[in-house]
Every structure is written in structure tokens, then in C-alpha cells.
User: Fold Cytosolic carboxypeptidase 1 from Scleropages formosus.
Amino acid sequence: FCILAVLGSRHLTHLNSRVLMLLGQLEKLNGEAVLSDAEVSRHITSKILHLIQTQEKTRKEITAKGSSGMEVILASLEVSGGRRVGVLVSKGGTAILLQLLITTSKEWPPSEELMLQLHTILAKVGPKDRKFGIKARINGALNITVSLLKQNLQNHKLLLPCLQVLRVYSANSVNAVSLGKNGVVELLFKIIGPYSKKNTSILKVTLDTLAALLKSKANARRAVDRTYVPTLLAVYQDWHRNDTRHRHVHIRKAILGCIRNITNIKLGRKAFLEADGMRILYSTSTECLSVRTLDPLINTSSLIMRKCFPKNRLPVPTIRSVFHYQLPHIPAEGPVAQLYRQPPDVDDVVDESDDNDDTEADTENDTENEEDEKNHKTQNDDIETDISKLRPKENLTRPLEDLKMYECFFPELSENFQVKVLTSCQTPAVLPKSLAPIVVPTAHAPSPLSLDGPGGAGGAGEGLAQELERVALEEDTLNGQSQSPVVGSLQGELEHDDDCSSHSSGELGVLEVPDTAALLPLHDPELYIDMVKGTKSVPQYTEVAYPDYFGHVAPTFREHILERVYGVQRAKIFQDIERMIHPNDILDKVVYDLDLKRLIDDGESLKFNSQFESGNLRKAVQVRKFEYDLILNSDINSNHYHQWFYFEVSGMRVGSSYRFNIINCEKVNSQFNYGMQVLMYSVQEAISGHPRWVRTGTEICYYKNHFSRSSIAAGGQKGKSYYTMTFTVTFQYRDDVCYFAYHYPYTYSTLKMHLQKLEALRTPQIYLRQDVLCETLGGNSCPLLTITAMPQSSSNDQICQFKNRPYVFLTARVHPGETNASWVMKGTLEFLMSPSPMAQSLRESYVFKIVPMLNPDGVINGNHRCSLSGEDLNRQWQRPSPDLHPTIFHTKGLLQYLSSIQRVPLVYCDYHGHSRKKNVFMYGCSIKETLWQTNVNAAACDLQEDLSYRTLPKILSQLAPAFSMASCSFVVEKSKESTARVVVWREIGVQKSYTMESTLCGCDQGKYKGLQIGTRELEEMGAQFCIALLRLKRLSSPLEFRNSSHFLDVENDLIESRCKVTSSTTYVLDEDEPSFMEEVDYSAESNDEPEPDPDPQETPADEDGLSDSELALRRS
Assistant:
């Protein structure tokens, strides 16, 4: 390298004998290339360097025309590689080699051997030098290589290194445009040809170079204009036909790479379709399916076909919700304001952006990597760095006079307990009964004991769907109803539904209700109907779903996370592509449509229904005999948020596999690709004594589809597509009625029923109050619970202890689609009301204020994320509106009132569900851990923080099998500054302010590793949260429990159910998922919002998470 630096620009003649001898020795060593001769080579080259540095004549002789000296020196570089090439680059060798290339090109004719060696070395050096393309362009090396290539198209010896260097040049986007203008694209097509066993290495490099050039839109348009797309397809077909032994898969894949880059532009996709590219790639790919080694070809072909598949319009008249609710006033700005300002005649399903977009390369791995980088950058940008905002400070924002209205919700602070009967200061208002009759599922008394197994042949099970009826119950229908331990009969006047009712016959019916009273003490079908009558919905539902009426008994068997079969996503995508290849095979028959209000039932198709509380299914289209496209309804006063579904299916055939495709999903990632299954409830199973939701479905996957998503719904982003969630089900019973749901449904009426049943569990030792916090937009009540222990006596000491108990404030279900939050809350409430010694100790330790459902309207109307205001209520905590967000406004008011009287809660926790991660975990707030994630320099005083915010999550990680400390995060993000967790921490001053996230899928650690989560595990999590609070109390006040026998039970419980945590606390970027062999076309995005809102990583910190004072107490 030093020799080259000295010789770089010299030209003269003849070699003296000494230099000639040294060069001969060096050439001999280059030919042998023995590793042990490295020292000898170094010794010889050092002598040559000494000669050319001290003797001008020698330097001139080596660089003379016709001299072989330079070739020998270059050859010594050529045989070296790896680390040596890296050293050459670091020492500036690239510039010297390029300068030598320029110098050599000025000779005429240039030395072919020297050019060969220079391009061979440059081909090695180029990939190691990140600025190689820029250096080559500045030095003028591009034109030299192109000129040499044009002159040597038939000289294969020189052609290969020139192409290799050109490939490196083309990696630079500016170089690619420049080379395209110089006719390199046309030049490369002169080399590309039909199948041949000769010169395959040259062809491979040519195709790789062409693919790099075609990443430029200008070059892609140039290729389209010169009709190269049909040429590439013809060449690919030829290689596919002749490469029968699959020895040249790399060449076939390289051809597809060129096609893939051309089709990144609209003109390329159009040319591909006109050249019959869909049929060609579809037929060649199907022929490759049986050979596993050809998967790279199939995957690339699949990507190209999906990208070129014409964008379809989502088959709905508008992306707005079918149901409309007029708001009391429209927000001044935001998505809801834009929705209301939108002219009524605007087509919001598609817009011109869907036709004019030049989409980026939609490669599976590339997209995923790019999204990972984007998410990593977004995370850092989203972290709050303003220390003044990170400092918790009380900010009441409302006058103290206004906050006095909440005093009536805290009678426990002024109660003297001289009167034994407790009365609420605000009893729940008696809600008006529904004007319309409530339609309840019934049947002609089929015997639950006579049902056969799969197939349902014979007995009373035959023709069940024909016998199932919906009975209209008036107010007095339930009165005087007969009861039996096995069957509860409900009779009434039938309401015949000509539109969407799937099984009405106009006769009286009797419903066989399974006797589950012992298993479901908080469930009562008759009470549930009574609760439904007081529930107000925008669509004015009059039907009740069987699962909500029967109840759910958690199955005793384990439900493992589904192991995905390799190639399932690809198979589903190919079936979708077949719709375009064979359009005559597609039925395209609408069988259910909330927009039309009228359906045609020919008896050949499945029957659908979602017109019941929490139901969500807008449209069902029969695509093939056993395949249906399903469209979900948007949240009311919104045009997106499609994730929650809950619908009924009947009219199925036994033994036939039905494929269901939910085609308007919006999130780019889903646990359905990682083992999560949908939930199904069979009425036949329920009547036979097994009323339960079970995980079901095979061939489940989630992928981007060809339905275009309007920029209006995508927040202004153009060129977006919807995603498909597909699953296959084989029904076991004839004439069954089945329900499918995203997660275990938990309706508002169910909550009201459970709360009423909890009243019956109250003992003289339990202080329980049920108040109505406020009325929602839809006219439903928002319940507020107060639970603690009654004082042991009316003595002043006992009353004082009662009034001075710290508060724990719990909320749940702000997002309607996160039904698991309600099941966790159910477990918490049942534990708090239980007679166990631990529950009594817990009640004696705290006063619990609980709002179990923050968004009743959203839950009732089948929304996924919003309330009737069309807004995410968990983004309204900073400035909630009393008119649009009453539940948030008044819940925050309760907390502000406690702050104003110096009774700030010890713990605040908001229960949520998480659709992108496994396990249960917490998000908290920490100044220190937030600043650790940034480069902000903070004073030492800013980093002083009590670590007690980690105590509760740490206890849960030791106590609850489903809880993962490794997934917890305590970073405060800008995008979350208006959430409950951050606002309660910052404005109310609650240091232990959390969001507890429960997975919708399952666990990948601990006792439940590899299992999907069920209601039993969720309720257990709610109970374990209570036990963790009890241990938290013991850590902070050990003297109070020194003689308490109840804590022996706590310790035993801790020991028995402790989950071994093997991983240290680390930051979690996106999904903790193992890599899957099959490429997946989606990338990581936000937690639960379509907008980018990534969850930040957690900072490594003290694993124990206890403050110094707590550590000292525990050691003592």
C-alpha cells in the first residue's frame, strides 16, 4: 500500500536487476499464497519500498509502460482480504486506488492486466468503504468503468470485475441516477439473456447491478419505457422452465429482484399487469410450492404480486360508523372536528392518493428493519426531556369550591358509625326500562343430556337452529317464572324479525339454561336480563347474546399458544391472489350488512348477527362456498379503530372448514401471528353443560391486504392499506349457533349484574358503598365503589384508624376492546369482598375507591377504543370536558378532591389490555429512568428519587405467575402526557401511579409459559394485585402486622405461587418474539393506537426496587 502511495502518478521505463529480482520473489509468493510466507512478503515489499523511496530511477522503472512491476504489487494486494482490506480502507487506500485507475486510463491503450487487477481490488475494497460511491464519483471513476465495460462486453475476463465494481457504484442513489443517464441500464440488458449454463457468475452480478440501479425511480421509469418488464418476465419464465434441478435459484431470485424494484412505481405495476405478470408469477410459484429450497422465490413472487394487486375499495359506503350519535357540542380541533367538518358528499373510502402513490419497496425483511429503526428513533424523540414537566407537582386546575361537590362521595371520612345502617349519599338512580322488548335466546326445551357429539346426529340436537327462538320479554315476563335446578324456562311473546334475525319461527320457546350457579356465583341469567333493560345503546339493541346470558365457566384444560404452521401466511395470500387470477370463482355475495338493514337468506350461506350489546360486525361477504370476508364497524363518531369483534354465526355445515377474513384491520402487528387464537362460544356446548369461551381456529395469520385505506382514515398518510386477520374453523355440531370474539366479552350489563351480586356478599365486617359517579353521554350510569373494613368498634381509636387509612384508587376499561381489564377487575373485586383473613387484613389496611368501567358507552356499543365522543378517553386526562368526557372529568375530580384535603392516594392503578406483548406488566413514572434514556444532562438534585415506585411491580413479579418485571417500563413519554398514569403522577402527586397491562394472548415466562391467557388467570391476576398491596403495606408498616396471624397466610401464598423470574430487568423495545423462519410482512408500531406511539424500553436499575427505608425495615 505504501509502495502504491509513492508510485501513484509516475510514468517511465525499464527495471534494474535488483528490483526485478525482488518483484519476481514477490510474484512467486503471490502465486503460492501460503500464510506462513506473510513475513517474507513483508520483508520483500519493505525492500522495494526502500528502493523507490531512495532512488528516483527505480520509482520510474516500476511505473513505466510495459513494466510488470505495478501488476505484481497489485497482485499482492489482491490475494489479501478480510481484515487487511479494512486496514487498506482505513489508511486511505480507496483514494489511491481510484487515482491509480484514473492515471492508468490516460494511457492508450490502457493496460488490460492493470485494469483487471485494479477493478478486482476495487470490488473487494468498495463494500468495506461506506463512502466508496461518493469518492468514485468525485474522482471520475464511474465513466472510466462504464467505458471499459462498453468496450469489453465479450471479454468475460475483464467484464466480471467491471460489473462487480459497477454494482458497488450503484449502491449510491446519486450514482445510480447518473449511471442510468449514461445508458448503463440499456447496457446491462445486452448482457442479460435466456437460460444458459455458461457465464452464470457474470449474469448474477449483472442482475444484482441492475436491481441496484432500478431502486432509482428514474431508472425504473426508463426500464418501463423501454419495455423491459416483459423481457424480464420472459427471461424468468425461461430460467424457471429450464432450471429443472434448481441449481441456479440465485439467478432466478435476482431476476425477481429486478422486477420487484421496477414495480415500486405505479408505471412499473401497470406494466407488470399488462405483461400478464400476475399469471406468470402465480403459475411459476405454485409449481415451486413442493420444494422447500425454493421458498425465497415464492416469497419474492408473493411480494411482487401483492404489491401489483390492484387496490380495491373497501366495500362500504363510508368508513364512518354505521351508527351515529350527535354530540352536545363539537370539539374545536382534532379528528372528531375534522369528521364533522367533512362535507356529506365526500367519498371517504378512497381518494386520489390511492391511485397516484409510488409506494416504497414493500419487502418483508426490509420493511421490518426500517420500522425497527424508525421506532427506535421515535422512542428517543418521544421521551420527555423537560425536567420541569417531569417533576410531579400538584395542579388542581379546578377551584376548591368546585371540588366540594365530591365530598358526598367520601362519607367514610366523616362517618361516626353510631348508626349501624349505612346509606349512600347518592344512590344509583333507577334507570328507565327500555321501551323496546328485550329479545332473549330460547329453544324448544332440547334436552341437554341427549346431545350427540360432533355431527350432532339424532336426538333433540337435530334441527336445533330451527327450534331456537328469540323471545320478547316485557317488563312483567320474568315475574312468576318457574325455576328448577337444571332448567330455567323463559316464555313470552315471540318477535318475528324479517331482517337480521337468524332463527325465528313465531312459536313459544323454552330455553335450557345450564345450571352453573355453583360455578358462577356472580352470574344470574334472570338478573342479567333485568340489567339489560336499563342499558341504553345508540342502536337501541333489543337482543341478548347467548354467552352473556348463559355465562362463562373457564375451561379446566390448558389452552396452549398455537404453533404456527410454516407457510400458512403464504398460502392465504396465494388464495387471495387467486381472486384476480380466477374472478369467475368468486361469489362476492353479501350475506350480512348493517348499512342495508335487509338481508336475503337463501339457506346456502352462513347467517351472521352482531346486533347485541358489545357486538361488532358491520358486513359479511361470501367470497367462496366456505370463505367469508368480514368488515368491522368503526367506533362511533370515528372512521377507524377496527380491532374488537363480537358476532354470531349459524347455519353451518358439520365437518366443513370455514375461512373467515377480517379485512379492515389497521394495526401493522398482531399477536395473531404469534400463537393467539380467536374465541368461540358454542350454544350446543353450553346447553350440554359446558357454557364457555374456548380458543379456536387454525391457519391463523395477519398480513397486509389489497384494500386501500383512505388518507382521511389514516391521519393524512397516503398509500396505506388495511390488514387481514384470517382464521379457519371446523364446526362440530349440526345446527349450532356459535359466537366469535376478539377476547372474552365482558359487557356493561354484566358489570351491573356482578356489582349487584357483590352486594349479597357483604358481611357486617365489610364497608361497601355503590354510588353513581356520573351519567355518561349515552345516559348510562358510571358506578363508583368504596370498599374497606368496618371499624371493630365505635371507639374513638377505631374511628380514627378507620378515617386515616390510606386510599388506593383503581380504574379499568377505559378502552372498550380491552375486555381483559374487566376480568382482572372482577378478580380484584371478588377478592376484596371475600371473607378470607387476607382480604380482611387488606380492607383494614386501605380504603379502595374503584371505578370499574370508565367507558360504559364504548363497551355497550361495541367500540374498540373510543367513547361516544369519538375520542380516546385515556388521552383526555389533562383537560377533560364535563360534557364530552364526563367519566374522566369526575374521576379526576375525585382525585383532585383527595389531593385538596391532603389525602393523596398511596397507589393509583389503571387496568388495561395489551395487544402486542405477552405477560402482564406495568408502566410507571420515574424522572431518573426517563432521563437515563436521553442525552440530557441533569443536576444531581434532579436525579434524586425514591425508588419505591418499583416496589409494587417487584412484589408482583415474585407473587403473580403471569407478571413480568422485565416488560415493565417507568419512562415518561411526551405522547402519554395526557394519560391517566402520567397525569395522576404529575398533577395529583401519586408516586405509585401505574398502568397495569394484561396480555390478550398469553405468557412466555413463568408458570404459564406457552399458554394462552384465560379468565381464570386474569381474575387470579386481580386477586394477586390485592395480595401485593397487602405485602406493600407490611413493608411500609411492619409493626402493625408483627402479631398478625393473617400474614402467615400471605407468606405461604407468596411461597406457593411465587413465579421464578430468571431474566433481569431490561428495556423492552418491541416484541419479545423469537424470529420465525417464514418472512412476515408487517412491522412493529405502537402499543394499541394506529398512530405511532411506541412503548419505550425500561432502564436497567436496582432489581429489588425498594427504597432505603423499606430495605432497612425488611432487614429488621
About this structure: The chain has a mean pLDDT of 79. The first strand starts at residue 438 and ends at 442.
